[in-house]
Amino acid sequence: MRIFYRLLKMADDTVKCYLECCKSSHPKLPLPHNVPVIIGRTPELGITDKLCSRSQLELTSNCYKRYVLVKRLGANTSQINGIDIEKNKSSRLEEGQDLHVVNGKFPHRVYFTGCQNDTKTEKAVVPKLPTKSTGLTKSDLFIKQPERKKLKVSENKSKVLNSKIKPQEKFSSESVYAFDSPSPMSSRCEKKAESNKRAPTHKHWSQGLKAAMEDPELVVQEDEQIVVIKDKYPKAKYHWLILPKDSISSTKNLSTDNIELLKHILKVGQELATEVMDKQPDVEFRFGYHAVASMSQMHMHVISQDFQSSSFKTKKHWNSFTTDYFVDATDIINELETGGKVKDRRTMTSLLNEPLKCHRCKKPQKNIPTLKKHIDSCQK
DNA sequence: GTTCTAGAAC
DNA sequence: GTTCTAGAAC
Question: Distance, angstroms, CA A144 to C1' B2?
Answer without folding.
Answer: 41
